[in-house]
Amino acid sequence: MNAIFPTPDAAESERLLTGDEMEAALRDIGARRYHILHPFHRLLHDGELSKDQVRAWALNRYYYQAMIPVKDSAVLARMHDAELRRIWRQRIVDHDGDGPGDGGIERWLKLAEGVGFQRDYVLSTNGILSATKFAVEAYVHFVSERSLLEAIASSLTEMFSPTIISERVAGMLKNYDFITKETLAYFDKRLTQAPRDADFALDYVKKHATTPELQRQAMAALTFKCNVLWVQLDALYFAYVAPGMIPPDAWQPGVGLVAGADAPKAEAGPRKTAPGDTPRLPRGVRLRNDETRGKYVLLAPERTFDLDDNAVAVLKLVDGSRTVSQIADELGTVYAADPRAIEADICVMLDGLAEKRVLER
Amino acid sequence: MNAQAPIRPEAPAPVGLLAELTHRCPLRCPYCSNPLELDRRSGELDTATWQRVLREAAGLGVLHVHLSGGEPTARNDIVEITKTCADLGLYSNLITSGVGGALDKLQALYDVGLDHVQLSVQGVDAANAEKIGGLKNAQPQKMTFAAKVVELGLPLTLNSVIHRGNIHEVAGFIDLAVKMGAKRLEVAHTQYYGWAYVNRAALMPNKAQVDESIRIVEAARERLKGQLVIDLVVPDYYAKYPKACAGGWGRKLMNVTPQGKVLPCHAAETIPGLEFWHVTDHSLGEIWRDSPAFTAYRGTDWMQEPCRSCDRREKDWGGCRCQALALAGDAAATDPACSLSPLHAKVRALAVEEAAETPPDYVYRTIGSNIRSPLKEGASS
Q1: Which residue of A272, B9, B21, B224 is most buried, as measured by CB atoms within 10 A?
Q2: Residue A254 banded pLDDT, cuts 50, 70, 90
Q3: What's the CA gap between B305 and B308, in Å, rounded?
């Protein structure tokens, strides 16, 4: 029967794979085990998660992001070749940036803030699921304790990440109205960084896995890394999707958010009328003198608006050529009142009509 | 002064006239508000008579004229009739299916001063919509028509009659209205009179579906403020208080049938014993003021308890007379849609029961059908 990842069978395992075969075997591990396949990711990308579930993901994933330079420093510490270190240290620069406000971790913080978190809460790492911490720390230990080949091979999930990133960005922008392009800026950089890193690591692994045993170790390292990612989503799913068992010390919806993070977006609806606007009644809306009842009415689609004297005075001057200011000036003269005070009242009245879609500006 | 004149509630000036220009219609919707016995073309009023009716309506104080049917554009003189409205200062509202000849006449209607178009949409999914309307290929015609209305700069309202066959599409109707550039959307739960009463078991949604539809509409109203106005008509059977039928009997609206009969509401003919007058025999003013059908339930004097002493009696005017007859067997009873009616629980249970059943097939409306009115059966038993 097929193994979960294609560990060569006993006879096969004695054989040294060619470079192409090795690369195919590594890619096959990703095709089967990369976390893009996890149900939580499907929910995330398809817009099926609630805002709080997206928050839980962003918060927990921050811990992983924050530990990546720690992990890469551990890898770096084991490299005796300056040329190798120069290449590898770029990963740390990418994540930490060259100064405050720069780098991948910073961009992930922006993402967390974008979904409503207080920056300090995220930095505190309080509320991170223990399972997330265990998985991430296992990764750091792994690269410290195993061979350099295994440490580098474990980074090869980057081979698969451009796909997940483009799916994720497109899916999240499309499906969540609280996610903006700026929020997802983290992924823009990773789209170019990840392939560069992966190309190097893949070449390194193909070159240095010189025996069947070393090749198997490299494949096992990549499998391990896939599992590091996978179990983090298992934990998120278990805590925040189903059955929804949030561990006692983990983040609870509502905690660590900036004030008003869940308030409906302010200023929904039409913009306010300004004094420089030129209001007009659109086709299908008419001011009419109702002689039967001795008053003016505004006739509109399937409704009639009763108007007070002030509204009638304004609407008689709404002709698509006068601005609100001009109407206010004229009425100010007629009623011997301050045009600017009248102007404010007119704006309020016209806003009410615009909201009902019987006035345009 | 007029001591000997009968004391009758005063007739307020009417504000709306529903002109059912014809019962002919390419669609066959199973909830059509037309009567089960549809008027034939040969009996329809001629152009000159409609023009006179419109003049009289304007004189009485009518502001809005709803040019309806059937499909009003099925009449060859629809443009002339619309022009008469414009000449009289009447606000003209074309209530159309958008199929058949509607598109061809739209430009001319616009040119003579049509004020507003209300387009019916039966569903969002074309196959579902066309099943409900009973006409193949109707949906693309409707979409083309709607686009043309908006392109001309006419205000467009989409009207969706909601029932169990499309209640899952409420959010879709809202999206469709936005996409089409409509300014208004009517999400009107079916009112169970006429054909809808015949098809009630096929149409009645369950309470959870109704609640969900209301929730969707309320959320969308907030989201689309200033972009789309959504009017919601909730189904009577699940309501707490009834609707003021037509704004109160003989208070705001009148309905002229294709043959010229004047009704206080489009279903009033289901009430036996009411005497309706024709525009060919009387002026519209006489009919409005004095015809037995209009005076029968105008005001509050006719009311029984619990309406008679109710605080809401001049708010909802006792609800719908036709529904009172259909469900309580007495047109002067409190509308059983009202939670204060002794029959309310029974009506609600009926709705729940029917909504739980597998829906039967639609009985499509058609001219010359032999469908017997269950209302009349109910009344005589």
Answers
A1: B21
A2: confident
A3: 5
Q: How far apart are CA B249 and CA B109, in angstroms?
A: 32
- Contact of B82 with B114, CB cutoff 8 Å: yes
Spatial contact of B60 and B284, defined as CB atoms under 8 Å apart: yes
Contact B115 A288 (CB under 8 A): no
Half-sphere exposure of A97 (CA within 13 A, CB side): 14
Q: If pLDDT is split at 50, 70 and 90, which confidence band does A264 have?
A: low
**DSSP readout, A152-197?**
HHGGGGGGTHHHHHHHHHHHHHHH-TT--TTTTHHHHHHHHHHHHH
Q: How confident is the model at residue A68 (pLDDT cuts 50, 70, 90)?
A: very high
d(CA B253, CA B255): 7
Residue B2 pLDDT greater than 80, yes or no? no
Confirm or reject contact between A299 and chain B (CB < 8 A): yes
pTM of this prediction? 0.63
Contacts of A355 in chain B (CB under 8 A): 225-226
pLDDT of residue B370: 54
| Chain A residues near residue B184 by CB distance under 8 angstroms | 301-302, 357
Which stretch of DSSP H or E encloses residue A233? helix A212-236
How many CB atoms sit inside 10 A of residue B353's CB?
11
**Which H or E run includes B93?**
strand B91-96
* Separation CA A15–CA A3 (nearest Å): 18
Give the whole-angstrom CA distance, residue B251 versus residue B317. 10
H or E stretch at B349: helix B344-356
Cβ distance of B61 and A356 shorter than 8 Å: no
Who contacts A358 (Cβ-Cβ below 8 Å, separation ≥6)? A281, A282, A285, A298, A300, A301, A305
Amino acid, res. B324: A
Question: Is-contact A26 A205, C-beta < 8 A?
Answer: yes
Place of tokens 């060569």: A8
**Biggest distance spanned by C-alpha atoms of chain A:** 103
Cα(B145)–Cα(B148) distance, rounded to whole angstroms? Answer: 5
Q: Mean pLDDT across chain A, nearest whole number?
A: 88
If interface means Cβ-Cβ distance under 8 Å, which residues of chain B face chain A? 13, 15, 60-61, 63-64, 89, 91, 93, 115-116, 118, 153-155, 157, 183-184, 222-223, 225-229, 231
Pairing of strands B184-189, B156-162: parallel
Residue A79 clears pLDDT 50, i.e. is over it? yes
Furthest C-alpha separation in chain B: 65
Distance (Å) from the alpha carbon of A357 to chain B's nearest alpha carbon: 6
Query: Which letter does DSSP use for residue B128 in this model?
Result: H
Name the token pair of B242: 């009834």
pLDDT 10s digits, A199-232: 899 999 999 999 999 999 999 999 999 999 999 9
Find out whether B84 and B46 touch, Cβ atoms under 8 Å.
Answer: no
Predicted pLDDT at B42: 83
Do the Cβ atoms of B4 and B52 come closer than 8 Å? no
